[in-house]
Amino acid sequence: MPHIVVEYSANLENHIDVGELLTSIHAAAASHALVPLAGLRTRAMKREQYLVANCDPRNLFVAVIARFNGDRGREPLLEIRDLLMSACSDSLSQIREEQPLALSVEVQAIDPAMRTNDNSIRDHYEDLK
Q1: pTM over 0.85
Q2: How many angstroms separate the CA atoms of 38 and 13, rounded?
Q3: How far apart are CA 8 and CA 30, in angstroms?
Q4: Are 77 and 116 in contact (CB under 8 A)?
Q5: Secondary structure class of 56 (helix, strand, coil)
Q6: Concatenated DSSP letters for 42-93?
Q7: Taking Cα atoms as reference points, which of 11, 43, 10 lies closest to residue 25?
Q8: What is the largest CA-CA distance in the chain?
Q9: Angle at CA of residue 79, ends 83 and 99, nearest 5°
Q10: What is the pLDDT of residue 93?
């Protein structure tokens, strides 16, 4: 944990490098002191079928859903939300000026009792211990 999923409309790829957007979002999350780099996973899900607002094919969307252990408390999760939104806004600023874009960032707290994981990443990378 944490997991960040970036869902986006397929037409976004005509305007930006989605990999660069992912890198920016991942780095923003990792910059927060309470986000363990060894557990951070960021991935994209391209949506081929979607409707946005008035269904104009020029409309774009990016929806970021980040799931974090709820033990961190409300304030750190709000800080992380703001870091993610800032990274998205910076990466998408040019396209916002040129195309209609719907952007959302949501942080969800996970009840620690409802999850389990097994992660050996720290075992393989000295700098993550």
Answers
A1: yes
A2: 29
A3: 21
A4: no
A5: coil
A6: EEEEEESS---TT--TT-EEEEEEEEEEGGG-HHHHHHHHHHHHHHHHHHHH
A7: 43
A8: 51
A9: 35
A10: 97
Place of tokens 């957007």: 21
Which residues face 104 on adjacent strands?
A: 63
Instruction: Extract the runs of DSSP E, i.e. beta strands, from 15-59.
Output: 41-47
47 vs 107: CA distance, rounded Å: 20
Token pair in block for residue 38 = 């060894």
Beta bridge partners of 60: 101
The three-class DSSP label of residue 12 is helix
**Tokens representing residue 72 in the block:** 């961190």
Pairing type for strands 3-9 and 41-47 reads parallel
What domains are there in the chain, each with its CATH number?
3-128 (3.30.429.10)
Amino acid present at 106: E
State which residues of the chain have pLDDT below 70: none
Q: If you ran DSSP here, which 8-state letter would residue 17 be given?
A: -
| Spatial distance between the Cα atoms of 61 and 12, rounded to a whole number of angstroms | 8
